């Protein structure tokens, strides 16, 4: 199977894609099942304009809702994220690992290698799009759901084009700069700004034109599920993707390859300068290596800052948007029948016409837990499994320090950082509420932010425990992400299905179930989340103590 | 060298599933000696060291360092040992100095003057990031952290990997100094010449079993070597063949060449009974040959 670069790339990557597609397929099935139990005929009575905002202009039934919610949101985000991770790793990843030199020592040109990797990327994205299309259509047939005029094929085609765009954007940055971090950072930035903008801007008068500047708009701006393929939009996405591919090949052929190295950061320059050396040494040198927890903290500054910046920026922006929303929007929302909120369950639920619901649906429901978990799961997975993968655990353990102390110190960092994200979210939401002139009790904001911190710690502590037991970073990350994703969907579906008993198995129920933005703190829910997190932290200790440290990957 | 035991292994065994990485290893290493642990790749050297460091746990048997059990008293032991893993990895974004500071902090401090001395002797650059160093220069940072706390026992897995000959020699001097101070060095290697130069005793391991444990002198005396003797008259080969340990004798006029493994004194005594010796030369055996001999014996008996 290793005959070619193309085959090796497929071999390294297929499993991740298969798992992601499988999980999404399961979600679609689960979603259809949950929506099917609802009486959603009332949605038919909605004004045409509102239905199109919700992506329901065509038929309205369980299958459509599930497909639009899962494939149109989770699914497209996931496939695009997989594509961009693979694109970013393509060339820069091999440079970072130092494997590019040997690879190119073979009689294959740089163009050959890059084209082979891009071909593998295109193939995997295409297979994933086909798989999701098959799940949506197939499960609807199995459950005997009417899809009516729904054009699942169009949605899948848009998803395919959009994922190609992000995957090849990451590839071109990776190939042109050799910097994997930059490739991921820029592409994620473009994707997230686009996702938010494409969702929010059209709500404003004249905002639709601005949304057209964002690539996400061309994924679902034309509502392909109801309106069919918009060939203009597809053409634009594919045109850019092809352009990225060409630029990637040209720029890779023109530049020097990087050796295995660690880039020069701002702090390094300050340390090299005699004027600033003393201070910089204190900040970057002595302080960050003063203890295990301080070193762990320094390693995760970037993800902490990204999460905090996001929460601050988005919450303030949401406040501003709230003020800018046209009156007609509120009239429409007021006219909404009860039960409508099921529509928003996937995004945390709530009444979008109230400040609490606005914040909950736009951030606290989905993006805020993602942000806090970017921090906690990366700390948790790197804490033990990461050190083992990088083979630094041996030397660390050669010091007179017990394995349990390593866990405790790294957990302290995780708790501290999760609390910082919670605090910044509180400040951002408070600021946003002020900017938007909303009435939100500070205590309620504090309550949801504290619960946010705790739900983040549940994910992070789970990653830590899986890493402690297996020593495998991949298992720690994907185990924790997968578990939390399933739990999130389970809670959302429980919300739709009128709070069945199984909903209470999901940690997310204890995060949002008490509706903290409206009702304030429910201390019993705080206790449940804290207990789950502590159990994961504590379980990690014996798991790690019993194990042989892994030597190599 | 004293009679105090620095490192002891008793029936140490490690299985990975069905693979027997280490089989019933018994070992006593005295305080104040440099002990060389020899074997080819995959023989079980690293497994032994990682078990002693409590990175992995023995399937059966046990080991102790300075009288403390390597598993139950692992944390206490580590106050007294310096360690250099094989296949060394450190944090690429830290400079050498940051790295040393980190480990020093975890140990509760270090004598920086001594660190500077070590860095000078090994010609190490501590200002660069570890990730930007060549593997040899990275190894120097690893060596400094192993030596810096003047530990009672220094355990090193293939310490001279990537070092140039000059630095290798300096490292050997440093190891001898440690032993002369009554401290102990345990090093694994497949570079036989290195062990030969620095070690007091050598253990040879193969397929997870210790197949020889000798002082370097005994190993050498056991070794086969080429002996060439020039005599005052024409030689009769039967005189030489009668001596214990002699084989492959060839004579040409006054000149005799043979392969010899045994006590040189006995050979000389036997020869001087018949002839007087004009000149003698031997090609000294190195561990390379000893190594091969042990392996061949093993293979023959297997």
Structure description:
The complex is a heterodimer of chains A (553) and B (302). Chain A is mostly helical and 553 residues long. Chain A is built from 26 helices and no strands. By secondary structure, chain B is of the alpha/beta class. In chain B, a hairpin with a 2-residue loop joins strand 12 and strand 13. The longest helix of chain B is centred in the middle third of the chain and has 16 residues, at 165-180. Chain B is built from eleven helices and 14 strands. Chain B has two domains: 5-220, Rossmann fold, CATH 3.40.50.300; 224-283, Alpha-Beta Plaits, CATH 3.30.70.100. In chain B, helix 3 packs parallel to helix 5 (135-147). The interface between A and B is large, with 31 and 40 residues.
Give a concise summary.
The complex is a heterodimer of chains A (553) and B (302). Chain A has 553 residues and is mainly alpha-helical.
Could you outline the blueprint of secondary structure elements for this entry?
The complex is a heterodimer of chains A (553) and B (302).
Chain A: H1 5-36, H2 48-53, H3 62-89, H4 92-97, H5 100-104, H6 110-142, H7 152-177, H8 180-200, H9 207-211, H10 217-220, H11 224-227, H12 231-254, H13 266-272, H14 277-286, H15 292-299, H16 301-324, H17 327-334, H18 355-364, H19 367-389, H20 393-397, H21 403-436, H22 442-470, H23 473-496, H24 507-512, H25 516-519, H26 523-546
Helix pairs in contact in A: 1-3, 1-6, 1-23, 3-6, 3-7, 3-8, 6-7, 6-12, 7-8, 7-12, 13-14, 15-21, 16-18, 16-19, 16-21, 19-21, 19-22, 19-23, 21-22, 21-26, 22-23, 22-26
Chain B: E1 5-16, E2 19-30, E3 34-38, H1 45-52, E4 60-65, E5 68-69, H2 74-77, E6 81-84, H3 96-107, H4 112-122, H5 135-147, E7 153-157, H6 165-180, E8 184-189, H7 192-198, E9 201-206, E10 209-215, H8 216-222, E11 225-231, H9 237-241, E12 246-252, E13 255-260, H10 264-272, E14 277-283, H11 287-301
Parallel strand pairs in B: 3-8, 3-9, 6-7, 7-8
Antiparallel strand pairs in B: 1-2, 1-4, 4-5, 9-10, 11-13, 11-14, 12-13
